[in-house]
Amino acid sequence: MKKNVFIGLTLIFLGLLNNAMAQAKYSGFVQSIDIRDYQGKKFTFSTLTKYESSNQMIGFAACYDDQGRFLENHLGDEPAPMDDNAWRALTLSGKIHKKGIKLLIGVLCQDAGEYYLDNLQLTIKGDKNDAPILVNGTFEDLDSGLSAFMCLSKEDSTALVKEPNHENNHILKLTVNGESTAIGRNNKVGKQVKVNGINLYYETYGEGEPLLLLHGADMSIGSFSSIIPTLAKHYKVIALDTRGHGKSTEDGRKLTYELYAEDVNAFLDKLGIEAVNVLGWSDGGNTGLVLAMNYPDKVSRLATMAAILYNDKTSVDTKINKLLEKQIEDLESRTLNEREEFSLRVKKSLQSEPNISPAALSKINCPTLIMAGEHDYVKEAHTKLIAKNIPDATFIIFDGTGHNALTEIPQRFSETVLNFLEKR
């Protein structure tokens, strides 16, 4: 059977995806393997990936019979949001169709941008053969190169590039071309304004009363992509990249939440917005608290998810701070590019910021919703402390979720925020 038969069928599948998700373009990178020896067996595909948080990547497998007819596909889950351009593990598990002959397996990418891959592995439960099933999944065989792989769009390009700070010398760079329309890199709605000597990037969706979204540390507007479409049906959503994050610039000043809040205040002045509803997630919640304290007239209503007043063992799970220390040590051990240098500064700031006194929260005079997840690394007692010290604050813990409730339960989270904002 010819390889292009499978490519054609997969491109049809991608076309259906693109029609269903009109705001984004899908592309992908796969390898075709013979699966006659694995029919009916369970499989696991894994890879390391790196890309901007405003984009998405999932594991993908498509199974075909001996006539090249599509039988079924498997789509993985999007990894939890992480730092921009940080390596993350991606996995996909499933069961091979009992009539399957060929399997296209790899990744699907959503929207234009640069994606990096390494250590592609496929394992079959019960298979005793030690030889790798995928050809050159580590990309270290330069003679083989990318000959065993396929890019699912002729518009896009692939190349092997060196990554000296990674565990392997070579990784795959997949460039998905075209105009980006993903939330966080949407050229059609994105704008920049100059405030406090820096350029702040923002995107606006929907109409009505303004709702400002503030993301977490080392994140960007794209971290809100799962809830913006719902929120934009009711509000004029203004999603902001804070200084140095996403597409916003920075000027080297010490990173504090007072500075972030000062930026936001100047940003609102620049847009001519007298008062705004604010939804802050994680570090964005910290900024929201400081904004409501220092510029009370600017905040109509405040909702925070997983905010903290200070970083110590009473507020945050010790595992997170140990992970933070490890990330800092790793960055300090090697030569960094400009983005990594800023990420190091952000991570160091997290060790000593914020510094908010519980008593100071009494300055907040707007309706406030304080939220966290049941399994959040922000301790529930600390979240309760925040709510207790804000006059008439509403306190909610989302059952069964963690720090990433926005992506874990986007509908329930959005409904909770909307119900709060619409309560008069």
From TrEMBL:
GO cellular component labels? membrane
Q: Which domain of life is it from?
A: Bacteria
Q: Which UniProt keywords apply?
A: Hydrolase, Signal
Matching entries from Pfam families are given as: Abhydrolase_1
Annotated AB hydrolase-1 domain residues: 210-329
Signal peptide start and end residues: 1-24
Q: Record keywords: Signal included?
A: yes
A GO molecular function assigned to this protein is:
hydrolase activity
Recorded hits in InterPro entries, A to Z, give: AB_hydrolase_1, AB_hydrolase_fold, AB_hydrolase_sf
Return the protein name.
Answer: AB hydrolase-1 domain-containing protein
What organism is this sequence from?
Echinicola strongylocentroti
